[in-house]
Design a protein that fits this description.
Layout lengths: L1 H11 L1 H8 L11 E9 L7 E3 L1 H9 L3 H8 L9 E5 L7 E6 L9 E2 L4 E2 H19 L4 E4 L5 H12 L16 E4 L5 H22 L7 H13 L4 E5 L1 H6 L3 H7 L7 E8 L8 E5 L1 E5 L19 H15 L5 E11 L10 E4 L5 E4 L6 H12 L6 E6 L3 H7 L4 E5 L2 H14 L3 E3 L4 H7 L7 E2 L8 H10 L6 E6 L5 E2 L10 E2 L4 H12 L2
Parallel strand pairs: 1-4, 1-7, 7-8, 11-13, 11-16, 12-13, 15-19, 16-20, 17-18
Antiparallel strand pairs: 1-2, 3-4, 5-6, 9-10, 10-13, 14-15, 17-20, 21-22
The structure holds ligand BES, manganese (II) ion (MN) and zinc ion.
Length: 518
């Protein structure tokens, strides 16, 4: 299995992998090569530093000059700090030394922080070192495993990414090529690269302006990308949604000139015909609020309101790249939420696919309206369980900030699995309740089965989840509210730059990988 996985990933990233096989000398004189090496710092005395094995190798290669200069050049490097050393070696003109913090021998999840701190330290260090070398405009970065190749690759690939979009090519910062340094487990390194690439892909989809990332454009990009890896994508149109009686989804889309699209994605990683896991992603390519219009300030960030959809597409793409033995289907309702003469009005009543009537008290609570029909539809495929993911409520941002994704689920087994995946990736999750009180608040309206706005005070994320619950008739279900983690304003770890985050793509991939190897 390990060998097969390695082969697959190597084929995919041929160019990337072959780079590291090239002889340094054959690169020619004008290629600038940088190296990232790690150092632990266990205590507070100068003598408490410890080089990683790769850094020790480099120290030998430079006849001890490296270690000596590192000591002389300043205080010991603490976790996440870095220092650049020049001209130590003919091959690597620039070396970024990065602090890994305490040397943690065995991987352990910090009970209170819910995180594998050793892995997180590596991601942080790798990203800081790579970003420093990028600023120095090196052409090729060699990054060592820093103790764990997967985390190191993640930190490097995430840290080097930035959105260039429509910026003049000449003004764009060049992203250096990243390759692994020294002897390391390439299988794990490549897994880290695929996961981080997937998160970067989600970031790109989210960051792309709404006029370029319309429902049809999203469908086109998703199909193009997934088809490369033999994942089937059905692009359903408005007439199809009408035939499915998706009145709730269609009611949101009718406020815009852009036609709605419904994506049905199928990845078969197993041949035993086992039931699929269903992933449902909110794909509102722009959320103005509709007639319940949002305020103008920062409304542009609502181009990222398809973050759930982006996460589903990039997760399935990564599963296919890694050939994970799991069957997964993706269901993505795509539309815009705009105000127009044909838009939903507060007080309107719409009928979802399962026949339930919904009073639209607030047209800005549109995510739950489009997910309602997608959840109903997903159940036609007898999934093992359904996981929906959505930038659903501003209240989630208030509750958790950018620290974690909020999770609502009727399965404690799935919850534990997801929590553990989050601790591994550093992109954490936190559980919220699905109590009857919230359901009551969503069904007390007269004249319809449900209202789309909670009738109580506060608890907006919980009432939204309770609303969705009404569209899952049976079986295990998880709802991930990612409104809080959608974007970062600088408080996130250094491997997530400001802007759309692509979270929690890596956690979802890890979760499904771990489930598949049970
Ligand atoms: N897409 C928003 C939620 C959101 C807010 C995501 C901030 C990311 C950042 C969602 O459609 C929305 O507008 N929710 C409303 C619900 C309310 C009207 C019940 C909200 O949170 O204000
Ligand atoms: Mn909204
Ligand atoms: Zn929204």
């Amino acid at each position: 299995m390990a060998a097969r996985l390695l082969l697959v990933v190597q084929n995919i990233r041929k160019e990337f992998v072959s780079l590291s096989y090239r002889k340094y000398s054959s690169e020619g004189g004008n290629v600038r090569r940088g190296l990232v090496l790690g150092v632990y710092f266990d205590g507070d005395k100068k003598g408490d530093i410890k080089l990683t094995p790769a850094a020790e190798n480099f120290d030998r290669r430079t006849s001890g000059k490296f270690g000596c200069l590192l000591q002389k050049s300043g205080p010991p490097l603490k976790r996440g700090r870095s220092r650049i050393l020049y001209d130590l070696d003919g091959c690597y003109g620039t070396v970024a030394v990065v602090g890994l913090g305490k040397h943690i021998e065995c991987p352990k999840v910090d009970e209170h922080e819910n995180i594998d701190q050793g892995k997180e330290n590596i991601r942080v260090a790798a990203s800081v070192g790579c970003k420093n070398l990028k600023d120095l405009e090196v052409d090729i970065i060699e990054l060592e495993d820093l103790g764990q190749p997967e985390a190191s690759a993640e930190g490097g690939v995430l840290g080097l990414w930035n959105y260039t979009g429509f910026k003049n090519k000449a003004k764009q910062k060049k992203i250096p090529q990243l390759c692994p340094h020294g002897e390391l487990d390439r299988n794990l390194w490549n897994k880290g690269v695929v996961k981080a690439d997937a998160q970067n892909f989600a970031r790109k989809l989210m960051e792309t302006p709404g006029n370029h990332m319309t429902p049809s454009a999203f469908a086109k990009v998703a199909k193009e990308e997934l088809s490369k890896n033999s994942v089937a994508v059905e692009v359903r149109d408005k007439a199809w949604a009408e035939s499915m009686k998706m009145g709730s989804f269609l009611s949101v889309s009718k406020g815009s000139e852009e036609p709605p699209v419904f994506l049905e994605i199928k990845y078969c990683g197993r041949s035993d015909g086992s039931n699929p896991i269903a992933l449902v992603g909110k794909g509102v390519t722009f959320d103005s609020g509709g007639i319940s219009l949002k305020s103008a300030s920062k409304m542009d960030e609502m181009r990222g309101d398809m973050g759930g959809a982006a996460c589903v597409v990039s997760t399935i793409n990564a599963l296919a790249l890694l050939k994970v033995p799991v069957n997964v289907m993706g269901f993505i309702p795509l539309c815009e939420n705009l105000p127009s003469g044909s838009a939903n009005k507060p007080g309107d009543v719409v009928i979802a696919m399962n026949g339930k009537s919904i009073k639209v008290d607030n047209t800005d609570a549109e995510g739950r309206l489009i997910l309602a029909d997608a959840l109903c539809y997903a159940q036609n495929f007898n999934p093992q369980f359904i996981l929906d993911i959505a930038t659903l409520t501003g209240a989630m941002r208030v509750a958790l900030g950018t620290a974690a994704t909020g999770v609502f689920t009727n399965s404690s087994v799935l919850w534990q699995r997801l929590e553990s995946a989050g601790a591994t990736t550093g992109d954490r999750v936190w559980r919220f309740p699905l109590w009857k009180q919230y359901t009551k608040e969503m069904s007390e309206t007269t004249g319809a089965d449900l209202n789309n706005l909670g009738k109580g005070t506060g608890g907006g994320s919980c009432t939204a989840a309770a609303f969705l619950k009404e569209f899952v008739s049976s079986g295990d279900w998880m709802h991930l509210d990612i409104a809080g983690v959608m974007s970062s304003t600088g408080e996130s770890p250094p491997y997530i730059s400001k802007g759309m985050s692509g979270r929690p793509t890596r956690t979802l991939i890890e979760f499904l990988c771990q489930l598949s190897c049970q």
